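User: Here's a chain of 208 residues. Predict its fold as tokens.
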Amino acid sequence: FLHIKDENNELLTYESYHESAQGDVWLWGRNDGVIRCRRVEERKTYEQEVILPKSSVGNKYYFLFEDSKGQIWIGKEDGLIVAGTDDTLKEFFTGNSKYTVTKATEYDNKIFFATGQSVILIYDLEKQTFEEAVYEGGACFTDIEYLPDQKLILLSQKHGIFIYNTNSGIFELSKLNNDPDLTGYIRLIVDKKKGVWVYNTSGMVWYY
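Assistant: Prediction complete.
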């Protein structure tokens, strides 16, 4: 067993887990920072490494995403951090950032980041540059996934489901928003065949 502790030897708890392509175990939570546990073969155990410390108020960690190049992206209340395969850390939009980055998905060598500020941040993995897609109506995006036909599905707890066309750059409200059962806290699940399922606490499930 590996007991995850902070610098004061106090046990930490984590909400989420990810095993990377390199075999590392990543743990993260809203307030307890980000930990990487790397296997040490000769000792048949794991070494704990603090990648990001316990966060203070106003600097929470929302998600962790591994891209097709093996880089680990960490979304914050204050921007983005990426851990490269060479163990370097880079920051984007941090330091009084206007972006709270909530979720990510990848398609066609681009990573699409949902934010709480009506913006999709689009990162080109080849060019290593960002661009923005802005929804002018105002929405806090909480989740994002890729759909067929070069479209993205986004969730907003206030406005419901959005569809974003990556070719035209147009946002549209989904027709599913007209369903009276689609209320409350909406979530997404992606299955092994890349099908997207929408659900809430009503017991109902919708499939894209």
